[in-house]
Design a protein that fits this description.
The protein is α/β, with parallel strands linked by helices and 302 residues long. The protein has helices spanning 5-11, 16-25, 73-86, 101-104, 107-110, 123-134, 206-219, 241-263, 268-272, 288-299; strands spanning 38-43, 46-50, 56-61, 64-68, 91-95, 114-120, 145-147, 150-155, 158-164, 174-178, 183-185, 191-192, 225-227, 230-231, 238-239. It has a 7-stranded mixed sheet, covered by helices on one side. A hairpin with a 2-residue loop joins β8 and β9. α8 crosses α10 (288-299). The radius of gyration is 23 Å and the shape is globular. The protein starts with a helix and ends with a helix. It binds zinc ion. Residues 98, 100, 169, 188, 197 line the site of zinc ion (ZN).
């Protein structure tokens, strides 16, 4: 075996001191760069914090502070620090749109700074199961105020309401409306131009997700700003009613494509092997997982 100069150097006991010196001068492995984060005001007193994971929504007014979703512990700490610079007020409401880790892993960072922690009633159970599987129970904070179909509270001049439209991305997704600001946080019920995760083990339903998107669009004014949980890279995380309805059409197209494959006798393996859901080539990512979920939903009895 031919040794490199450095290895030769290192194996020479005479040179060991010199080697150690040289080694000490080698720069330490670079720490990972701090996550890119930003806070962007949207309308009224509502804005968004983007970092790593699902979009955080924030109401920051002199008479009320609300935080929707918490990303991960590191970006949550940055978001909380930013928030405290904008307002010293205790957070009136901490809300989770659903239980997934990229929306709840910063809960423990925010919870001590908040008065109330709200989510749909299925969220704590789903979050506990997820944490048990990941052995991350010790890092969790769970919503202690839960609701069944609707929940609302006045926070200063704003009214914040939560509504459960039934199973969609999971079986615990809340649509959160800031009524005066006319802004809706969709959580992961809205993926903008990205193939969505359909969490069937957590009770997801594409068929009811379609109905939900339609209902949400009907329930809000034409000029509502919708906050998406995730967007295609470099695209905004705020979308319009037209985008919400395009996402509904994506799911309809997905189910039609899969149903056609099943009817023509194709296997799941054959159906998922497609570059894009027909008509939706602009969606980012690999569609296999989403198509498989559609196949499972259409072929599962009961
Ligand atoms: Zn999610």
């Amino acid at each position: 075996m031919k040794l490199s100069r450095r290895e030769l150097f290192a194996t020479s006991s005479v040179a060991l001191g010199t080697f150690s010196h040289a080694w000490a001068q080698t720069p330490a492995p670079a720490a990972p760069p701090p996550p890119q984060t930003s806070f962007d005001p949207l309308r009224g007193s509502v804005g968004i914090f983007t970092g790593r994971g699902g979009t955080i929504g924030m109401l920051v007014a002199p008479d009320g502070v609300v935080v929707v979703d918490t990303q991960f512990a590191d970006t949550a700490a940055i978001a909380l620090k930013n928030l405290k610079q904008m307002s010293p007020r205790t957070i009136d409401l901490l809300i989770n749109t659903h239980h997934h880790g990229d929306h709840t892993s910063g809960n423990a960072v925010f919870r001590p700074a908040a008065t109330k922690h709200v989510a749909h009633r299925n969220v704590p159970t789903l979050q506990k199961a997820q944490a048990a599987a990941a052995k991350s129970e010790a890092q969790q904070a769970f919503a202690d105020t839960t609701y069944d179909t609707t929940w609302s509270e006045k926070v200063g001049a704003e009214t914040v309401s939560l509504k459960y439209y039934g199973p969609g991305h999971t079986s615990g997704d809340s649509v959160i409306t800031f009524q005066n600001a006319n802004i809706v946080h969709m959580g992961d019920l809205m993926f903008y131009l990205r193939h969505p995760r359909v969490d069937r083990p957590s009770g997801a339903s594409i068929k009811n997700w379609i109905v939900t998107l339609e209902s949400v669009a009907k329930d809000h004014p034409a000029d509502t700003i919708y906050i998406a949980g995730h967007s295609k890279v470099n695209l905004p995380v705020t979308v319009t009613r037209a985008d919400v309805l395009k996402f509904r059409d994506y799911f309809s197209g997905l189910l039609a494509y899969v149903q056609k494959g099943i009817a023509s006798g194709q296997s799941a393996q054959q159906i998922v092997k497609v570059a894009a859901v027909p008509g939706f080539a602009d969606y980012e990512g690999n569609p296999e997982g989403t198509i498989q979920a559609a196949y499972d939903e259409l072929t599962t009895k009961g």
